[in-house]
Amino acid sequence: MSLAYDENTVLTPDQVKALELYEEGSTKESTGLMSDAIFCYSRALRLYDNVERLYRKKLNYEYQKELASREPIVTTTAKLKNLNLNNNDGEENEQNTKEDEEEFVTQLDPCWLLEILSDDILVEIISILILKDPFAHISLSHTCKKLSQLSFNSSAYKQLCKIIYPKQVYSESALELNDITKNQDRMVKNWDFNWELMLNDRPFIKYHGLYISKVTYISEGARESSFYAPVKLVTYFRYLRFYPDGTVFKLTTTDEPNQIVPQFSRENQPHLKNSFISRFQLEMDGQILIKRESEDYNFLEELEIVSLGYRKFHRLNWISSSYINEDGEKGYFTLKKEKPFNFSGVKAYHKI
């Protein structure tokens, strides 16, 4: 018999070996070595068929042990209770009640900004912040309930609409059929002069960041025997960055976002392999058509702007990916392995 990870659990040698193999498989899986991971899992299950439950029990034990070793968090109120507050005569004051402590804590950090400035001044500050730094505007709205309400009042929605929609690049048919104009005071009539409703209902492309699609799938290798076939986990990324002049910068690579984002601009296109500069057009219903021409083919990609929970127009879903050859024949690429694009804001991109 062999002791396991705590003094109350006793494991057999087979269980210990199975647990070690399962841990090794988990490590290999996290590094992308799926073939080796599956091999380790199979050996572990042959030794002990309930090894997964054993592994989870060990993880839980280690987590609880780590929590117990952490220092407790001391709140401000608890710290005040430990203070030795003296009166003017130097004698210990033993009459600090709970109400006194709470009143003292409340007075530690008053929100002077909200106390001193009127709502009109705060709204003016917010309007400047929307222009200067959209990310700071969002952060400010998260600080308290009052600033959240002021950050997204009717004037803020109006300002956001006038910033966002004139930069959208619509197709000629969309411009004609929907009478689209850069004058948003005219456009808002279609939403009963409700700026908030227009912003929430009318899809738009975001320029202060990029859209990222992470594609992951398992590829099987050549079968070496009737019982064992090697597999590998394939992961790559698709990046899209739109510009208000109607161009979109595209890249397909295995490099992680932290490597690509700092250098992902069309000016660096010659230095990024498998990158292309294409043209795009937006329809009123949120469909995006991306076109790229080469010597022999014209490539067309159709995407749809959708919301993701409370994040408005955050995702691009695939509709189709096709090509037209020099003879005018059209073919389609499979989208079986493709994943949607999710928007990621980049502070350095918002001034373009």
From TrEMBL:
The keyword Hydrolase does not apply. Pfam families: FBO_C (PF19270). GO terms for biological process: SCF-dependent proteasomal ubiquitin-dependent protein catabolic process. Keywords: Ubl conjugation pathway. The keyword Magnesium does not apply. It comes from the Eukaryota. One of its GO terms (cellular component) is SCF ubiquitin ligase complex. Residues 188-288 form the F-box protein Hrt3/FBXO9 C-terminal domain. This is F-box protein Hrt3/FBXO9 C-terminal domain-containing protein.
